Structures are given as C-alpha cells and as structure tokens.
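In this supplementary section we document a worked example of the pipeline. Step one takes a protein sequence of length 166 as its only input; no multiple sequence alignment statistics are reported here. Step two produces a three-dimensional model, which step three serialises into structure tokens for compact storage. The input and output of this example are shown verbatim.
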Amino acid sequence: MADRKAAIRAVARRADHVYWVREWPDKPTWWDRLRRWMDPASYHFDRTATPPQPWVDRPAGYYERTGWRIRAAYVRSDLAFEVEYVVCNPCKIGWVEAPHSYEGYKRCGLASAALRSLRQVYPGVQWHTGGGHFREAQPFWSSVSVDVPGGYTQRGRCRHVEPRRA
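The serialised model returned by step three reads:
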C-alpha cells in the first residue's frame, strides 16, 4: 500500500514531464508502419500500451470538439486521471472540463498537478470551466483556483473555440 501511494505521489511530482501526442490512433500510423518495415522482429502496435511518460497529452478525439485535448496520468500501466481542455491563443483563455480521477487514485494530488502543469505550459491564460461545479466538487475548485487568473469559474467558450453555426 505504501509503495503504491509513493508511486502515485511520484507521478504527481512529474506532471511537467509530458509525452505530447499529435494523434491517438485506432490503427497504426505511417510512422508505425515504417518502424515495422525497419525492424519487424521488435515491432508491435498496441494502442493501449503504457506511454513512455507517466503524463500524456493527446487529442480528445471528438469530431465536434476540434482542438480539445486530454491530459492524462498513468501510474504504472493504470490510467489514473484525465482532464479535457482547450486553449484559445488569440483570446488567452483556456477551459477545463471533466477532471476525473479513477477509482483508487482519488485525493492523491493528480488533478491539482495536472491543472498546475497546464498553467505552466500556457502562461498568461485565464482558466475557466464550461459548466457549473457540482456541490461536492466545490472544495476542490476552491483550492485549485487560488491565485489562478479566471479562477476556473464558469464561462462560455469564445468564437474561436466553438465557431458559430449559420
């Protein structure tokens, strides 16, 4: 148990060590195919394989939410935490939605570490959420919003993030 908690704390401390993924493939990419061609004996494609870093930043994968990304934490091979986010560079506004710690990883500091890491990657950005906060989540949002521009308050998305439909 103590070993497991130490592993989780170590992942939280490494929130600034992020493996950035341009696409999250359902099938092998051209790069995967090239690696397979160059070294067929050692190649294998496994979309669910543990990433090379404990933190991964990848596209959200929703066609209707272009530009959204997911920051995720892995403890050993377990997906421990995820949060969706998008940043509008012209407006210097970012939105986070649906932070979720999986069972066994709640109240371990992963959510706070992820949000802190996003603020470091996107300096000068005001941070908001698209929806309201559940009552049981109020203490969390109160603690992580201290001295954060925008304070993770509810705010509608700008026209750059969610284009108006005709």
